[in-house]
UniProtKB/TrEMBL annotation:
PANTHER family: POLYNUCLEOTIDYL TRANSFERASE, RIBONUCLEASE H-LIKE SUPERFAMILY PROTEIN. This is Putative pre-16S rRNA nuclease. Gene3D superfamilies: YqgF/RNase H-like domain. Its EC number is 3.1.-.-. It is an enzyme of class 3 (hydrolase). The lineage of its organism: Bacteria, Bacillati, Actinomycetota, Actinomycetes, Micrococcales. Belongs to the YqgF HJR family. Could be a nuclease involved in processing of the 5'-end of pre-16S rRNA. Residues 4-110 form the YqgF/RNase H-like domain. It comes from Zhihengliuella salsuginis. Keywords: Cytoplasm, Hydrolase, Nuclease, Ribosome biogenesis. SMART domains: YqgFc (SM00732). It comes from the Bacteria.
Length: 166
């Protein structure tokens, strides 16, 4: 585990919630909700720029599994987003590692937290993805501290998997 900012990412069909940590990786804080743009990938451009600006060491992308731990359409979408993010970061020369972490129930938990905090239900959509990203990141940070090692599954791009063929 190295010192440095970590990023939490909650990927949805319409929005992407983003959170960041302090350089000592003690506390996750919300940053922004990006509008998902599958045609122009403007959300990915903004996210890559932000990660580079902070010189983040790790970006944790939430992997929404089913309650039984299975794969869903959302799981596939998160994996694909994480792979594209890793490729874009590599292309930009960033040393940031992208990792997938289990995020079952973070959005449900985020809605409950917002309700408990007195946030009007009509305002949830605006911030729920950020709150979910904070939950994903804080869980990863806490696990890192507890286990004294990096957590989550490393995202590899097709270039990473190539072997030397003599």
């Amino acid at each position: 585990m190295s010192r440095g900012v970590r990023i939490g990412v909650d990927v949805g069909l319409a929005r992407v919630g983003v959170a960041h940590s302090d350089p000592d990786a003690l506390l996750a804080s919300p940053w922004k909700t990006l509008k998902r743009d599958t045609k122009k990938d403007s959300d990915l451009r903004v996210l890559v720029n932000y990660i580079q600006e902070l010189q983040a060491v790790t970006a944790y992308v939430g992997l929404p599994r089913s309650m039984k731990g299975g794969e869903t359409a959302s799981t596939t979408m998160a994996r694909e987003y994480a792979t594209v993010l890793q490729r874009r970061l590599q292309d930009a020369g960033a040393a940031t590692e992208v990792r997938l972490v289990d995020e079952r129930l973070t959005t449900v938990s985020a809605h409950k937290d917002l309700h408990a905090a007195g946030v009007d239900i009509r305002d949830h959509r605006r911030v729920v993805d950020q709150v979910a990203a904070v939950a994903i990141l804080q869980q990863a940070i806490d696990m890192e501290k507890s286990l004294q090692r990096d957590v989550g599954a490393v995202v590899e791009t097709p270039n990473d998997r190539q072997t030397d063929q003599d």
